[in-house]
Backbone:
């Protein structure tokens, strides 16, 4: 009788197991990223749950004929994150947090064959665990600002031995199929790359000896963006005129004018310049090409010549969308 009870106890402990279930996914988000970074740098995201959750058993051991297939298929006609204007940000799915195991859309990926199920501890303990998925964008996406999304249908097909008995015999198998949708998103924000060379008037003995300096500002802003460019009044403005200052606290009044004209380039309302007012490539931003805003800078000739010295000012350029 004692031997029979001992055998029954052994069988009962061997049958303690936990099963897997197809559950709702956790969405993956890349967050908010500037258009410049989307274009030039790989962005990373992940989901903690791609739709499969298991409560493991210490008696589970994956065999050669076991499989944990997951098939990721786009819900729609476009592959990638699609924005409001139809632009697409391509990205790649990965089965772990590296680029070692890329997942191809529409093809079954076996998590059992790459050691990932074991590495996750999905079947080796009694705490419920889910399968995460990792994502990385691909370089070179020149896109407009907005919310980019894709929904993937995740089809799970699993078949595995849930418990090992005496003599390494399989006590039973779980076969499970199910589908859940997974949403991926990325928000692209407006951004600009700006080149602003310094303005140098050179040197002269009197105010009338300084000539006009012609220059330009190069701006490359997010594809499709409309914006305005302003110049503030500098650090020493007085009576509506910008002024350079010397170490001895003397001043030299000057200004910066739009294109080749005499309209002052400022920071408020009509004093700003719109993207449609660019001298080269006017219109909305292109994302990967510069728009050029010409200017001319000159000293006011109705001022007295100040004492000799080095005069400087700092002007801030800002872009508003």
Residues:
């Amino acid at each position: 009788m004692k031997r029979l009870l001992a055998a029954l106890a052994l069988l009962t402990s061997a049958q303690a197991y936990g099963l897997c279930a197809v559950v709702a996914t956790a969405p993956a988000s890349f967050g908010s990223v500037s258009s410049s970074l989307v274009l030039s740098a790989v962005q990373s995201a992940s989901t903690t749950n791609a739709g499969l959750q298991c409560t493991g058993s210490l008696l589970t051991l994956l065999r050669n004929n076991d499989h944990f297939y997951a098939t990721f298929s786009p819900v729609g006609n476009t592959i990638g994150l699609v924005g409001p204007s139809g632009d697409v940000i391509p990205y790649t799915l990965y089965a772990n947090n590296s680029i070692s195991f890329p997942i191809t859309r529409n093809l079954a990926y076996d998590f059992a064959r790459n050691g990932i199920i074991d590495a996750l501890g999905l079947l080796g303990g009694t705490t419920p665990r889910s399968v995460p998925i990792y994502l990385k964008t691909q370089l070179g996406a020149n896109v407009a600002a907005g919310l980019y999304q894709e929904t993937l249908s995740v089809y799970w097909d699993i078949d595995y031995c849930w418990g090992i008995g005496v003599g390494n015999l399989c006590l039973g198998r779980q076969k499970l199929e199910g589908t859940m949708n997974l949403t991926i998103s990325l928000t692209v924000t407006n951004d600009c790359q700006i080149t602003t060379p310094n303005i140098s008037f050179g040197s002269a003995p009197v105010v009338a000896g300084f000539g006009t300096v012609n220059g330009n500002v190069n701006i490359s802003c997010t594809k499709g963006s409309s914006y305005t460019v302003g110049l503030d009044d500098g650090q020493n403005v007085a009576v509506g005129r910008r002024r350079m200052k010397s170490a001895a606290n003397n001043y030299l009044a000057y200004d910066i004018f739009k294109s080749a004209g005499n309209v002052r380039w400022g920071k408020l309302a009509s004093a700003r310049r719109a993207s449609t007012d660019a001298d080269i490539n006017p219109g909305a931003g292109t994302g990967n090409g510069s728009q050029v805003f010409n200017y001319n800078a000159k000293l006011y000739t109705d001022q007295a010549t100040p004492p000799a010295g080095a005069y400087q000012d700092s002007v801030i350029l800002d872009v508003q969308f």
